[in-house]
TrEMBL record, chain B:
It comes from the Bacteria. The chain crosses the membrane at residues 20-40, 77-98, 110-130, 158-183, 212-232, 269-288. It comes from Hephaestia caeni. It is found in: Cell membrane. This is Carbohydrate ABC transporter membrane protein 1 (CUT1 family). Belongs to the binding-protein-dependent transport system permease family.
From TrEMBL, chain C:
Belongs to the binding-protein-dependent transport system permease family. Its main location: membrane. The chain crosses the membrane at residues 9-30, 68-92, 104-125, 137-158, 179-201, 239-260. InterPro entries: MetI-like (IPR000515), MetI-like_sf (IPR035906). The lineage of its organism: Bacteria, Pseudomonadati, Pseudomonadota, Alphaproteobacteria, Sphingomonadales. SUPFAM superfamilies: MetI-like. Residues 69-260 form the ABC transmembrane type-1 domain. It is a multi-pass membrane protein. GO terms for biological process: transmembrane transport. The keyword Plastid does not apply. This is Carbohydrate ABC transporter membrane protein 2 (CUT1 family).
Automatic annotation (TrEMBL), chains D, E:
InterPro entries: AAA+_ATPase (IPR003593), ABC_transporter-like_ATP-bd (IPR003439), ABC_transporter-like_CS (IPR017871), ABC_transpr_MalK-like (IPR015855), ABC_transpr_MalK/UgpC-like (IPR047641), Mo/tungstate-bd_C_term_dom (IPR008995), NA-bd_OB-fold (IPR012340), P-loop_NTPase (IPR027417). It comes from Hephaestia caeni. Pfam families: ABC_tran, TOBE_2. One of its GO terms (molecular function) is ATP binding. This is Carbohydrate ABC transporter ATP-binding protein (CUT1 family). Keywords: ATP-binding, Nucleotide-binding, Transport.
């Protein structure tokens, strides 16, 4: 075998049984299926390259870290935008911007969110695959019952007060909670909600790379809103992720706060006559409750770990692989994630996908945390824990924000 | 012993050490050296890719001022207290009842062991489904009985006991098997004598069986203390250490600081503290049991 | 033995406990026969028809599973054999033989019991990187061999064997190794079986070390391999599949257990005489 | 104080039948000794009575109660195990007190009984030792003491004196005899020692291969053994057994040895079956005599001096070995040719089935 | 075949001295019996020779080699343990073959030896049983067989016959005696059985409290016990010991009992220390006699019939208990008043230090 070996390490799971040989990307469904099919297709189209697909358990960073420490770097790795800075700062990644330019991929083709996710110090550190955000998944059947439909469109709140009022109306009319949330064994959504609604108030979450800025009225308001929702029983409680999904599918509540990756599943359900969502599903970006229309976002990217032993041939294979993926961004976007290329968003093909038109604005409103903030993963956990404690009433909001800030600063100080 | 020629004796003795040598080599390579390495790391500022410098005891000072860490210490102790005595007592009880050749005993032994074969991922997943207040097994039962389901894993005071129950369900096989093996060593004649001495079951247990297997009892306690101090997977997967850090154990803290925050020095320091705690707990137990033996 | 009859209260309690123990197990089994989509909508659908073999088909459809099972078997059996050999030798040495520094060494080994994996795993990883051993069976087995538990268990067990059996063998001119091998070792079979089960189990279920040592998918063990196939939200979207994986992963251990358990309870009592 | 009834009890280990439908009645207060060759089932029988072995058939009653379904502790028996079975982690005192504590005997009563038993068995100074720190004989005495303190209805003793020296053995034997007299407890005692059996037993049960050969008083057993087996098993040195043919049968039987010598017996000829017979002569009824006039002549091979008596191992002309007895200060030496005199009133005859025919009993 | 020399050996368990500077020389090929009360240190001594106990002082030589630093396996000894110590997981055959395999004896030779020993000890049918499935006596025989097959230089046997019945015991004893004659192996044998000691031993070593009381041939020990301890320990039933005062000392000593009766002895008066003495009379030299003319009169309390002889437990007028002996068919009954005749040439005297004075030996 004199083919060049390309070691590609990724998450998104394995589905050999279903898609092991599939090269028809259009026929694939779901993150795993589409990813597998694109890679299969790449191999089929590039017979001189052997792709070793190393699938790792989500999110795979423990393993990657161990590999890098053992000088056993793969050629390409899937990485969240929020994590890139950590590896980049330690010199563990190679920039790919120059290389991408040689195959005609330039940063200006990316959406804002995607570009921001891979740009550090003016260099491009990876090829963005997508951006994703939390969305407002709506059960329009229940909304109708609650009298929250106007012109066939759900009425969405425009301020915290409206949110509470509509939620109470919903609750009165349907007897069900307005919001469905995964709050058990789950902190990420707390963090994302918190980030989003603080950002909407135009208050920076971090004053600089080493300092969090959580003891602000804006932060207080964001938590207070969710505390109210919970206190007034306007949300499902004590559901973990699976239970929340099941609950929403079964018509357990009006709005499910979950990410882009569920659009496909719920859309499928809405076509099923037995489902509570039958002909009753719509999805929207988070409503603008405060001054600014922004939504916290993150995204998946391909990055290239630094490896001094990588040969020219291998390097070239990497480039071909990235180029191939860039060309298939539209296929990937069928997962529900936002495309990384502005051109895809503008394409009729993408807009024709269910509900995508309503989501297009995310390309502009999606906002990741500033790139200079490292350790976003552990910070997300800390923020989520403290937010949860405040919302559940285990601590006062101010105490939680103070603890949050102290703990995050502690992490940032010790980098 | 004046009569023993020293040279000869030493020669014999050194060859005796050959029996333990193979293990000792592995022990030194895989425990002693890494431990020393870890101790050194705990005095540095490092991540997995290198060391920035020696910082002395700074990491330890920071640990003892870190309320989150202190909470994990307490959580860990609490968990050990919840599980270890129960594991030992239940394991012993099971072994006592199931220590016979009968077919039903073999079947029951297998049942009580079966949960041990599952990996922590599956165990926690199943028990999350059990504890879920919304649609979990317990809630279904509670509702059927007319009660209101309790959110075990979302309740600051109930989360740890829920994890303890899960752990006991998962781990009961090992102490049971250890006790079973020990019971095999008790000469049957002793039970016969006790039966003729009209000893009640309880007295046979306390005066014959327990003294005969007390070494194993100590072993089980020590092993379980050590294992349960290293609680990690259950809270990581069931509660993520919450709610409000109520179930965050030391190892989860170590994992998060080391692998997520990349503060290897700090994580190593926490690992050393854990080591010291286990050491003290195990030694106290060992000392207690060997003192009882000496008497 | 007539007086060994089980007390009815104890029997009742234990049967109840066994039923409670089994409920989650049966649940796992039942879940593994349900379609993922049905479970996503409602986990309680497990209590009703239809059931399907689809999850198992998917599981075996991925040919990799067999390789991972092989890897896991090699690692687990290798580690079990190694631990049994090393621990028995060392246990005999510590329990029965005298050599300079014996008690100090034993105490040091006991201290080793207290070393948590977290305190050594990074250093182990780096050491094995230095000798480029990662992604080999050796690297997967080696750390497990150092666990002092086996030595502790075997030492305790050897100590409880009556000494006059050794003495008879000594007079029979048996070498120390022969006494160990032919006379005492057969009497420790219950402990061997226990240790065997325990070691196999922890090797089989170990996740953390193989995750960071076996990064090449050809070297994945079953736990790591199975985890790698999972999507982020596998527990929601692939619950049935997950449970099928659990059943598959658990079965070999159960078989190993069934094989060993008869040696735990049927072995010759260590104490001589009736 | 209770009698024991065994009714057709059987015991099998796998395919091997160790006790075969054995029936026996022991009166309350009786002292019965089980005598039999090694492996014949004595311990097994004792353990079945105690409840330590299941019964594969038949039933066992102690006193009025049927016990074969009762737990050992409920049968009111105390047992001294052949291998002692002391509790290794307890001191001697605790070993002895354990059973009493279980029976909730008051502490001072326990102390009293322990002290008394320890005194009788001369283990006072050992009371606070661990039982593993004792010599064999000491362990055996502790085992006896442990049974004694319990003052049970029924004592089972399995070779309880085997590891004691002669003097201690005698004292302990006396102690047991006195205990029996004092308490009137029923006792079953396994021994292989004739003297013990003879001196202690009200009745002796001779066992062979899981069945009973003969039950009777010691003198019965010794003087009128029911079978050849009993005759040869009881008595030390062993009875001489010589094949004979019945010669002329007057009122008493006269037999002819293989070498042609004629011996008169006191066995009534009347009820004797025809055919070849075996003559049984105990050594002590064969004494050296002047060569001429003695019915038998023999050459001395070994002279075994036992102190108070001397055993003469001799062979007849045709090579038949015989053991005869002489006084302790016998002047006979190996190689001597001597005559042998036989006491006719002590000669036994055994028929082809092994059944014994004995002289009419005196008085 | 090697002699054994113990030179001032001592053994302590903590504070307790169990063997106290004991010295003893055993010639090659000799058969020595250790006799002594329970707990006197017999087993300990044997175990020290075997190398199973460390020696706290002194030295031990087997043959020409000093062995106290050698491993047990290197000393060329075989031992039968008091508690058997069979390998529980091995069959009888494996138990016996184990030592031979270790010595690399060829397989067919092993088979031969095992078969021979099993045959001699009558355990042939048990060869394939697990040793846990044997009766006590069977286990003991396996233990002996296991030692025999090894054909060692030195045999150590710790009460090897204690669990055998009389007949088997006799046969096994004979087997051991023949083995000794055939192989000429040195043997050290612990027993508490007189007859065993008497019949087997070339020399008997009487131990007491960790030291040697007397070493001598069986007849020496029986006829001229060095101390009162030896006299009373050896002999069954026990020697009668009566406090006396030396009356008139002619050439032979004449003594007076507490009740005034006069008894003549054959002890030379010359070398006798002055003062109170103890008269030792073995039961077999006190015989019932016609009341008138007998030196002693007594009332019979217990008549103990042992078959070939009868023991008479009598009390003198002043209450002193005495054991006398009569023939097996004694007509004496409890309650009878009888006279007692004493054989003067068998009377012993012990002085205040317990040292014995005996009649001049015949021949
Ligand atoms: N481990 C020990 N600790 C303390 N004393 C002991 C220990 N082992 C034995 N002894 C004591 O040492 C003495 C000698 O014991 P040994 O076994 O040699 O006696 P023995 O002569 O064989 O007696 P027996 O005829 O009863 O077997 C006994 O008094 C015994 O109690
Ligand atoms: N577990 C067993 N399996 C098979 N046979 C056994 C078992 N236990 C005992 N036996 C056999 O049962 C028979 C009776 O044994 P038991 O112990 O009753 O003999 P015993 O009369 O007490 O002999 P001894 O005088 O030698 O102690 C023996 O032949 C023995 O070999
Ligand atoms: Mg027996
Ligand atoms: Mg002894």
């Amino acid at each position: 075998d004199d083919r060049t070996t390309l070691v590609v390490q990724r998450f998104f799971g394995a589905c050999e049984a279903e898609y092991g040989r599939n090269t028809d990307v259009a026929a694939a469904e779901g993150e795993c299926g589409i990813m597998t099919s694109i890679i299969n297709r790449f191999e089929a189209d590039n017979p001189d390259i052997r792709v070793v697909e190393n699938i790792v358990f989500w999110p795979g960073y423990d393993q990657l870290t161990a590999q890098l420490a053992a000088n056993d770097a793969p050629d390409l790795v899937t990485m969240h935008g929020s994590v890139i800075a950590d590896y980049q700062a330690r010199g563990l990644l190679d920039p790919v911007g120059g290389d991408l330019a040689t195959v005609g991929i330039t940063p200006d083709q990316f959406t804002d969110a995607a570009r921001r996710a891979v740009t550090i110090d003016g260099k491009i550190w990876g090829l963005p695959l997508d951006s994703w955000t939390m969305l407002w998944h709506v059960n329009t059947n229940l909304f109708r019952k609650a009298g929250l439909m106007r012109n066939g469109q759900p009425v969405l709140p425009r301020s915290p007060e409206e949110l509470l009022a509509q939620a109470e109306q919903f609750e009165r009319r349907t007897g069900k909670p307005y919001l469905v949330q995964a709050t058990a064994n789950e902190y990420a959504s707390y963090t994302r909600n918190f980030y989003t609604f603080v950002m909407q108030q135009g208050v920076p979450l971090f004053t600089d790379a080493r300092h969090a800025n959580f003891r602000t009225p804006a932060a207080h308001r964001a938590l207070e809103l969710f505390k109210q929702i919970r206190a007034r029983d306007l949300t499902t409680q004590n559901q973990d992720y699976s239970a929340a999904v099941a609950s929403f599918l079964n018509g357990g509540g009006g709005v499910f706060l979950v990410g882009t990756w569920m659009v496909q599943d719920f859309d499928t359900a809405s076509r099923n006559p037995d489902s509570a969502l039958h002909n009753g599903y719509a999805v929207f970006p988070y409503p603008q409750l405060f001054q600014r229309n922004v939504t916290f976002a993150d995204g998946h990217n391909w990055v290239m770990p630094h490896n001094p032993e990588r040969t020219l041939a291998e390097h070239e294979a990497v480039l071909r692989f990235l180029k191939f993926f860039a060309a298939h961004d539209a296929d990937w976007a069928r997962t529900g994630h936002m495309p990384a290329f502005a051109a895809v968003i503008d394409s009729p093909k993408w807009r024709a996908l269910p509900h995508r038109a309503a989501l297009a604005e995310i390309a502009h409103t999606a906002t990741p945390l500033p790139k200079q903030i490292r350790r976003q993963f552990p910070i997300e956990t800390v923020v989520g824990q403290e937010a949860a404690a405040a919302i559940a009433g285990n601590k006062s909001i101010d105490q939680a924000l103070a603890d949050m800030e102290r703990r995050v600063n502690d992490i940032l100080q010790h980098i | 012993m004046a009569s023993l020629t020293p040279r000869r004796r030493r020669a014999t003795d050194w060859t005796n050490a050959l029996f333990v040598l193979p293990y000792l080599i592995v022990f030194v390579a895989m425990i002693v050296v890494p431990l020393a390495w870890g101790m050194w790391l705990s005095t540095t500022k490092s991540d997995l890719f290198g060391t920035e410098g020696f910082v002395g005891l700074t990491n330890f000072v920071r640990l003892f001022g870190d309320p989150i860490f202190l909470q994990t210490v307490w959580n860990t102790f609490y968990f050990v207290l919840l599980t270890v005595p129960l594991l030992a007592v239940l394991g012993l009880a099971l072994a006592l009842v199931l220590n016979r050749q009968a077919r039903w005993a073999a079947v029951l032994r297998t049942i009580f062991f079966a949960s041990t074969v599952l990996s922590v991922t599956v165990v926690t997943l199943v028990w999350r489904l059990v504890f879920l207040p919304d649609s979990g097994l317990l809630s279904v039962v509670t509702r059927a009985l007319g009660g209101t389901p309790i959110a075990f894993l979302n309740d600051e005071t109930l989360a740890m006991p829920a994890i303890a129950i899960t752990t006991i369900w998962w781990c009961i096989g090992l102490p049971m098997v250890l006790f079973l093996a020990a019971l095999q060593q008790v000469p049957r004649a002793l039970y016969e004598a006790a039966a003729l001495d009209n000893a009640s079951r309880w007295r046979t247990l306390t005066r014959i069986t327990l003294p005969a297997i007390r070494r194993t009892f100590a072993l089980v306690i020590i092993i379980e203390v050590i294992l349960q101090f290293q609680l990690f997977g259950q809270p990581q997967l069931m509660t993520l250490g919450g709610p409000n850090n109520a179930t965050r154990p030391i190892v989860l803290f170590i994992y998060e600081t080391g692998w997520r925050q990349w503060e290897l020095g700090y994580a190593s320091a926490a690992a050393q503290v854990l080591f010291a705690m286990i050491l003290i707990a195990a030694m106290v137990q060992y000392w207690l049991s060997s003192r009882r033996e000496a008497r | 033995m007539r007086f060994g009859r089980t007390h009815p209260v104890a029997l009742t309690l234990i049967v109840i406990a066994a039923v409670l123990m089994m409920v989650p197990l049966f649940w796992v089994l039942a879940l593994s026969f349900k379609a993922n989509a049905a479970l996503m909508a409602d986990t309680n659908s497990v209590f009703s028809l239809p059931y399907t073999l689809a999850n198992y088909r998917t599981l075996f459809g991925d040919g990799q599973v067999f390789r991972w099972i092989m890897n896991s078997l090699i690692v687990s059996l290798g580690m079990t054999a190694g631990v049994l050999i090393l621990s028995s030798l060392a246990g005999y040495g510590f329990a029965r033989l005298d050599f300079p520094g014996r008690s100090v060494l034993f105490v040091i080994v006991l201290l080793g019991l207290a070393v948590p994996e977290q305190a050594v795993i990074i250093a182990r990883h780096q050491m094995l990187s230095l000798v480029s051993m990662h992604n080999t069976y050796g690297a997967l087995i080696l750390p497990g061999l150092s666990a002092p538990f086996g030595v502790f268990l075997m030492t305790q067990y050897f100590r409880a064997i009556p000494r006059d059996i050794d003495e008879a063998a000594l007079l029979d001119g048996a070498s120390r190794f022969k006494i160990f091998w032919k006379v005492l070792l057969p009497l420790t079979i219950p402990a061997q079986a226990t240790l065997g089960i325990f070691t196999f189990l922890s090797a089989w279920n170990d996740y953390w070390w193989p995750l960071i040592s076996a990064t090449n998918k050809q070297m994945f063990t079953l736990t790591v391999g199975i985890a790698s196939t999972q999507m982020n939200f596998a527990q929601t979207e692939g619950l049935g599949f997950l449970m099928a994986q659990a059943v598959l992963a658990g079965l070999p251990i159960l078989i190993v257990y069934l094989f060993f358990q008869k040696y735990i309870v049927q072995a010759v009592a260590g104490a001589a005489g009736r | 104080m209770s009698g024991v009834v065994l009714d057709g009890v059987s015991k099998r280990y796998g395919a091997v039948t160790v006790i075969d439908r054995l029936s026996l009645t022991i009166a309350a207060g009786e002292f019965v000794v089980f005598l039999g060759p090694s492996g014949c089932g004595k311990s097994t029988l004792l353990r079945m009575i105690a409840g330590l072995e299941t019964v594969d058939g038949g039933e066992i009653r102690i006193g009025a109660r049927r016990v074969d379904h009762l737990a050992p502790g409920a049968r009111g028996v105390a047992m001294v195990f052949q291998q002692y079975a002391l509790y290794p982690h307890m001191s001697v005192r605790e070993n002895m007190a354990f059973g009493l504590r279980n029976a909730h005997v008051p502490a001072d009563e326990i102390d009293r009984r322990v002290a008394a038993a320890a005194d009788a068995l001369e283990i006072m100074p050992l009371l606070d030792r661990k039982s593993t720190q004792l010599s064999g004989g000491q362990q055996q005495r502790v085992a006896i003491a442990r049974a004694i303190v319990k003052q049970p209805d029924l004592f089972l003793l399995d070779e309880p004196l085997s590891n004691l020296d002669a003097a201690l053995r005698m004292r302990t034997r006396l102690e047991i005899a006195q205990l029996h007299q004092r308490l009137g407890t029923t006792m079953i005692f396994v021994t292989h020692d004739q003297v013990e059996a003879m001196t202690l037993a009200d009745r002796i049960v001779v066992l062979n291969q899981g069945g009973i050969e003969q039950v009777g008083s010691p003198m019965d057993i010794y003087l009128t053994p029911r079978t050849e087996f009993v005759a040869s098993f009881v008595g030390s040195p062993k009875i001489n057994l010589l094949p004979v043919t019945v010669e002329a049968a007057g009122e008493m039987t006269r037999v002819r040895l293989a070498n042609g010598a004629i011996i008169d017996t006191a066995v009534a000829a009347a009820d004797l079956p025809a055919g070849a017979m075996t003559l049984g002569l105990r050594p002590e009824c064969i004494r050296p005599a002047a060569l001429d006039g003695a019915p038998l002549a023999a050459r001395v091979q070994v002279v075994e001096r036992l102190g108070e008596r001397t055993l003469l191992h001799v062979v007849l002309d045709d090579g038949t070995p015989i053991v005869a007895e002489d006084s302790g200060l016998s002047a006979v030496r190996p190689g001597d040719r001597i005559g042998l005199a036989v006491q006719p009133e002590r000669a036994h005859l055994f028929d082809a089935d092994g059944l014994g025919h004995h002289p009419a009993q005196r008085g």
